[in-house]
Design brief:
CATH topology of the largest domain: Immunoglobulin-like
CATH class of the largest domain: Mainly Beta
Helix content: under 10%
Number of domains: 3
CATH superfamily of the largest domain: ntegrin, alpha v. Chain A, domain 4
Strand order of the largest sheet: 2-12-9-4-7-6
Strand content: over 45%
Shape: rod-shaped
Order of helices and strands: HEEEEEEEEEEEEEEEEEEEEEEEEEEEE
Radius of gyration: 37 Å
Structural class: mainly beta
Largest sheet: 6 strands, mixed
Number of strands: 28
CATH architecture of the largest domain: Sandwich
Length: 373
């Protein structure tokens, strides 16, 4: 979470800048308090409601010749209504700053003062702890200012010559202010730790696990043929386990590639998506079926024997007569292994019988059936 600055390089560059633009006669009073702030985490400064963030305050005296004495500076940092200030990170902050006042909660402000001298070319960090209060779709600006809290023109000694100087000074006022921002969001109350998808015959086996579920409602399993347009094919209810849970779903799939993702929906209707997984199946020649007896007698039961080996769950039997009329359209459940179906009675004639899977694909070849008187 910390960002390391090269203080030596920064100090040298600052000194060169000031030497280039400052008249020599004024350097005896060239103290220069400055400030720069940056919100963490750095990935968009996103913090969840109830979660924690930090503001890195980089400050110090970048003047060339004059120290800044203790208890003469004040840093004022203010946040908007959806971010709260909780205090100073004492472990990682420079100990020369202390909390002078703190207004926590919404529209919070913290004031810091220096309890020790800030010598020339001195750059250091102070860390302010924050928390997310209210989710908002736009960023929240954080402002900071550094200023003198005593008269900046008492008599101080020049540390180079020992002679009195007329001021500590503020060589550049343009570096006395800085801004950064936070975005506070409502976290989805489920954490997906794994999501896999693999082929199992003519089916896709989806498995996923969570590490935490709070106020979570359900998963929507979605599929797509082009990885762009998805549709919901199943809903899986949550288990609402604070320690996480495991889930599985099997989707029938024809020969080809299908894309899957999970839509995770909480009780408030907010949602997010998992990564997209692809599954390729090859179902050709893996299901054998036959219609018998053939020929059959009129009003004699006709059977279909179907051996399923690829995970198909349902089939539709269709029979068309010699002039193209659909005379049978009936769905049957499928179990692994051998299945036997009895068709409705048919009048004498010639029929074309076919089996269709749940995706509308023809299983093997259409077969001819003759019914005789």
């Amino acid at each position: 979470m910390r960002q390391n600055f090269s203080k030596t390089i920064l100090t040298a560059l600052t000194a060169l800048f000031l030497l280039s633009f400052t008249p020599f006669s004024g350097r005896a009073q060239d103290a220069d308090p400055w400030i720069s702030i940056l919100a963490y985490p750095l990935n968009g400064a996103l913090i969840p409601v109830g979660g924690n963030g930090q503001i890195q305050v980089t400050t110090g005296n970048i003047g060339i010749t004059t120290d800044i004495v203790a208890n003469s500076l004040e840093i004022t940092l203010s946040v908007g209504g959806n971010v709260g200030i909780t205090g100073l990170d004492l472990v990682n902050s420079d100990p020369r700053w202390y909390v002078y006042s703190l207004t926590p909660g919404t529209n919070g402000t913290i004031k810091l003062r220096n309890n020790a001298t800030l010598p020339v070319f001195d750059i250091h960090d102070v860390w302010i702890n924050t928390t997310g209060l209210i989710a908002m779709p736009i960023f929240q600006t954080v402002t900071a200012n550094i200023s003198y809290v005593i008269d900046p023109a008492p008599t101080f000694k020049n540390p180079l010559t020992g002679a009195p100087s007329v001021a500590q000074g503020n060589q550049l006022v343009g570096n006395d202010n800085s801004t950064t921002s936070f975005t506070v969001f409502t976290p989805l109350p489920v954490t997906l730790s794994a999501f896999t998808a693999e082929a199992d015959g003519c089916a896709a086996k989806l498995n996923w696990t969570t590490t935490e579920e709070r106020n979570f409602d359900h998963f929507a399993v979605e599929s797509s043929s082009d990885a762009r347009t998805f549709q919901t094919i199943a809903t899986v209810k949550n288990k609402n386990s604070q320690n996480g849970s495991s889930y599985a779903y099997v989707a029938e799939q024809p020969t080809g590639t299908v894309y899957y993702r999970l839509k995770m929906i909480d009780v408030d209707g907010q949602f997010k998506f998992s990564d997209v997984k692809s599954v390729h199946t090859d179902c050709s020649g893996k299901n054998n079926w036959t219609v018998y007896p053939d020929p059959a007698r009129e009003n004699e039961p006709v059977h279909i024997k179907f051996t399923a080996t690829n995970g198909i769950k349902t089939v539709q039997v269709k029979a068309v007569d010699a002039i193209g009329r659909m005379v049978i359209s009936k769905q049957y459940d499928v179990v692994a292994g051998e299945n036997n179906y009895v068709l409705p009675a048919l009048a004498n004639g010639t029929y074309m019988v076919s089996l269709i899977d749940a995706y509308g694909n023809l299983i093997d070849q259409t077969q001819k059936l003759v019914i005789a008187k």
